Amino acid sequence: MKDIFICSDNILSPIGSTSAENFVQLSNLVSGIKRHDEGSISEQPFYASLFKGDENFTKEKTAYTKFEQLLIASVSDALKNSSVQPADNKTILIISSTKGNISLLETEKVDASLKTRMALHHSAKLVAEHFQFANKPIVISNACISGLLAIITGMRLIRSGQYDHAVIAGADVISKFVLSGFQSFQAVSSGRCKPFDETRDGINLGEGAATMIISADKTKSKGIKIVSGSVSNDANHISGPSRTGEELFQAIRISMKDAGLSANDIDLISAHGTATVYNDEMEAKAITLAGLEAVPVNSLKGNYGHTLGAAGLIESIISAHSLMQNKVLPTLGFKQMGVSKPLNIPVAIDERPLKNCLKTASGFGGCNAAIVMSKQ
């Protein structure tokens, strides 16, 4: 199989506008999660990682929505640090999101034009036209594995020979519509989230965007390969994950097999770690089934909140930087083990030689994904 290399990336979040800035903030244990009293989003105070309300993400005054501005700003920074060209007919743009412009339902008249404006493919088309991509963009929207699935899709398209490069961008913004949906499941924490902790009581949401540019051209590499990836579905419940973890384990097992790695070869696991009771328990079981319970595991939800369609990309990029800097980041909010299958969850920065990382994600509808990244 062709090697697939990361050649540029960007993270745009409330704690930084580049991947490097974000990694420094995470290394300093900074979190973007704060208490908000935003009546336009929720009648009750809530904790989330949000951009400032008046923040502009593109220099020019345009008709782009906040969601589209985030994508454009993130892609711009990643392209700036890459020789990959959008106009190259061997370059594909892949957009990852769960909600896109759904917040327009709260401010605009619902008619045929609004339905078009809210469509993810319409936003993808606008972003592609902004950068003059030669090819029609691809949209990936599969709940909270969207970011990882977008990476896997890009990897497979390149290995199939259809393209040489993929620009993979994801974003989501938080609105009343989005927050109220999670509140209806009673899945939102009353304070800062605590992944894998015995007192965890739900998620915090977060806004963000990220871009990863991957290529089959080794000369464009920054030192990290996307080695393998797999997707599974547990078909358990529309919102509740598997109770056994066997289906996420299946995605992990296939990814590790395709990478030619055993449990002893994995140096770091970047978990989904939403801090809900059932997700963290399911992930702990899946990781244990894979024989990886001794491997350092972290969740970045205490730093970013759950950034939905951007989460898989943001967390994969941070994992790539962890490999490059030989640094395992801690899980903010974690104090006491709260899952039935104990994991190795560092509570402080852990510097050690790192070569291989496993990244996992799970989402509504029972979807699961895993990828393996390795240092060259």
Please summarize what this structure is.
The chain has 376 residues and is α/β, with parallel strands linked by helices.
CATH architecture descriptor text of the largest domain: 3-Layer(aba) Sandwich
Number of helices: 10
Order of helices and strands: EHEEHEHHEHEHEEEHEHEHHEEEE
For the biggest β-sheet, the strand order reads 5-4-6-8-1-9-15-14-10-11
The tally of domains stands at 2
Corresponding CATH superfamily of the largest domain:
Thiolase/Chalcone synthase
CATH class of the largest domain: Alpha Beta
Q: Share of helix among residues?
A: 25-40%
Mean pLDDT over the full residue set? 96
Low-confidence runs: none
Major β-sheet, in short?
Answer: 10 strands, mixed
Outline: globular
Gap from first CA to last CA: 15 Å
- What fraction of the residues are assigned to beta strands by DSSP? 15-25%
Task: Provide structural commentary.
- This protein has 376 residues and is an alpha/beta fold.
- The protein has two domains: 4-220, Peroxisomal Thiolase, Chain A, domain 1, CATH 3.40.47.10; 224-375, Thiolase/Chalcone synthase (Peroxisomal Thiolase, Chain A, domain 1, 3-Layer(aba) Sandwich), CATH 3.40.47.10.
- Helices cover 30% and strands 21% of the residues.
- It has ten helices and 15 strands.
- The strands form three sheets. A ten-stranded mixed beta sheet has the order 5-4-6-8-1-9-15-14-10-11, with helices on both faces.
- Helix 1 packs across helix 10 (311-325).
- The longest helix is centred in the N-terminal third of the chain and has 15 residues, at 66-80.
- It is globular and about 50 Å long.
- The model has no long low-confidence stretch (mean pLDDT 96).
